[in-house]
Design brief:
The chain is of the alpha/beta class and 361 residues long. It folds into two domains: 235 residues, Rossmann fold (3-Layer(aba) Sandwich), CATH 3.40.50; 92 residues, Rossmann fold, CATH 3.40.50.1100. It contains 13 helices and ten strands. Strand 4, helix 4 and strand 5 form a beta-alpha-beta unit. The longest helix is centred in the middle third of the chain and has 22 residues. The radius of gyration is 20 Å and the shape is globular. It starts with 29 loop residues before the first strand and ends with a helix. The structure holds ligand F0G.
Length: 361
């Protein structure tokens, strides 16, 4: 890495450029969560909070590279399908690069904070009558017809930027105690991040910087109502079968056709990891538990904690493991979900006596 730099571009040696269209991104905290560590019962538990990126999700790491490429090629219009976070990141990085942006969102299924971001950063927003997978089908058609430059995670330059999550985790984790994590758990939607982490670790092994047995076990977590990757892992398939009907409170990962599965499935298998499905209630409980340690994340992010908790109970995660959970998006992305998971505000009169009475009652 480049010691003079911070964030994604600190790792430019692993990227196709020296610099990108930057806000800047990366350099996110690795939190300790002692109460969760104790309760779940692993040797060390850390939370890599990707919600602390400039637009509040890990997508920024991909966009700084992807939008730089788009500028380089001189394309007219940038486009993506999105469950929300990609659209917010594309809108912001497109604006930063002075480029036109178009986003396709599944109508009524995107959290309020994300639509607000895409809107204020100046994206043209199309609300599609269909789910995310339909949006991605359409935007791929548009890109194929030369109408737009595709910035979903099918774009390999996005994944290059997202590799830096892995590099940063290794550096931060090692700084604490000199070891690397045994396992990295992450929420899975399109499986782009899983593919990016796998590429990161494979490149490190091929360059001799990391031993094969030091590669963390990649562990994907999906919501039960939207779990085609888990199905493929459980059934030992080498492909994923598309789910036409998906539903979960974690709208960010409400995806039935994980397009990066061909790159991600080998990553999960070859690192000795696994995939697990969790219920919406387990996700909400984990979101609340993280919040009680001061770490505010959106529902999809909390799936990583819910998944590790479940795998620990099943004995698949061992008590002596050192685990990093990726939390991919910030609490404020989905204020409605946060309010539902949290406590109700209490109405009180507008005077001190009244407030004291209320507190004592
Ligand atoms: N967590 C959050 C908060 C996300 O927004 C996403 C994906 C994922 C996890 C899953 O990541 O697709 O790499 O497996 N959101 C995309 C979007 C689909 O449009 O914002 P993945």
């Amino acid at each position: 890495f480049d010691d003079d730099q911070w964030g994604v571009w600190r790792y430019s040696a692993a990227l196709p450029f020296e610099e990108g269209v930057s806000l800047p991104e990366g350099g996110t905290p690795l939190h300790d969560v002692p109460r969760l560590e104790e309760e779940i019962g692993v040797d060390r538990l850390r939370v890599k909070h990707e919600g602390m990126n400039p637009t509040g999700s890990f997508k920024d790491r991909g966009m700084t590279v992807g939008v730089r490429v788009a500028k380089e090629i001189g394309v007219g219009r940038l486009a993506c399908a999105s469950t929300g976070n990609t659209s917010a990141a594309l809108a912001a990085y497109g604006a930063r690069g002075g480029m036109e942006t178009l986003v396709l969102l599944p109508a009524g299924k995107v959290a309020a904070g994300k639509v607000a971001q895409a809107s204020l950063h100046g994206a043209r927003i199309l609300e599609v009558d269909g789910n995310f997978d339909t949006c991605l089908d359409i935007v791929q058609d548009l890109a194929g017809m030369g109408e737009a430059y595709l910035l979903n995670s099918l774009n390999p330059f996005r994944l290059e930027g997202q590799k830096t999550i892995g590099l940063e985790i290794l550096e931060q984790f090692r700084d604490e105690e000199g070891s690397y994590p045994d396992r990295i758990a992450l929420p899975v939607g399109n499986a782009g991040n899983t593919a990016a982490l796998y590429k990161c670790f494979r490149e490190l092994v091929e360059s001799g910087a990391l031993d094969e047995d030091e590669v963390p076990k990649l562990t994907g977590v999906q919501a039960e109502g939207s779990a085609p990757m888990v199905e493929a892992i459980e059934k030992g398939w080498d492909h994923v079968e598309r789910w036409d009907h998906v539903e979960t409170r974690a709208t960010a990962i409400r995806i039935g056709n994980p397009v990066n599965a061909p790159k991600a499935l080998p990553g999960i298998r070859e690192t000795g990891g696994t995939a697990v499905a969790v219920t919406d209630d387990e996700i909400t409980a984990a979101q609340r538990d993280l919040a009680e340690e001061g770490v505010g994340v959106e529902p999809a992010s909390a799936a990583s904690i819910a998944g590790v908790r479940k795998l620990r109970k099943e004995g698949i995660v061992d008590a002596d493991e050192e685990v990093v959970c990726l939390t991919t998006g910030h609490l404020l992305k989905d204020p409605d979900a946060a309010a539902e998971a949290g406590s109700e505000p209490e109405p009180v009169p507008g005077d001190t006596e009244g407030v004291l009475d209320h507190l004592r009652s």
